[in-house]
Amino acid sequence: xxxxxxxxxxxxxxxxxxxxxxxEAVTVLELLASRVKKxxxxxxxxxxxxxxxxxIRASVQKSAVSRNxxxxxxxxxxxxxxxxxxxxxxxxxxxxxxxxxxxxxxKRSGIVKVMAEYAFPPGDYDWQxxxxxxxxxxxxxxxxxxxxxxxxxxxxxxxxxxxxxxDEIVDASVRARIRQLQAHLAGVIDGGN
Length: 193
Known about the structure:
There is one protein chain. The chain is of the alpha+beta class. The protein has two domains: about 5-105; about 110-190, Glutaredoxin, CATH 3.40.30. Helices cover about 60% and strands about 15% of the residues. It is built from seven helices and four strands. The protein has helices at about 5-15, 20-35, 45-60, 70-85, 95-110, 125-140, 175-190, and strands at about 110-120, 145-155, 160-165, 170-175. A four-stranded mixed β-sheet has the order 2-1-3-4. Strand 3 and strand 4 form a beta hairpin. Helix 1 runs antiparallel to helix 4 and helix 1 (about 5-15) crosses helix 5.
């Protein structure tokens, strides 16, 4: 079984060890991964890792940004992770690893990222008030230093909202409330017989 958290933690440890900049290292990793995804055919195993590493290094050497010393550390870290994933036949998990890297770093820095889904886009005034209330509640609950909320409409929701806070989902949608009411009524009816 692939251990996303293990790979993400290893990459973050390498960033710290090399004193690289987190955001730049992740941006470079995303860029390199997107290039590797464009390689036709299967990309796994030892020989594919060697070939892919040669292609990436040649591509990076052609770019002017490779002359920046800090950037070259970021590139090296990205290449190492990608080559290891290819050797282990796990490159298909690169997007999950990148997302986990971002989650771990956000947690370390005290930032909680929240995805808010609404049935209908709230008005500017309502959203600002609701966003402030949500941020305060999440800070109290998690002890986070900062909360970042991204909102988007979800046409599958009848009404209300759904929050994704890390791996946790808070469902305050009308559909969820109807399900809770159905379960409660079923329990009352079954308990009454």
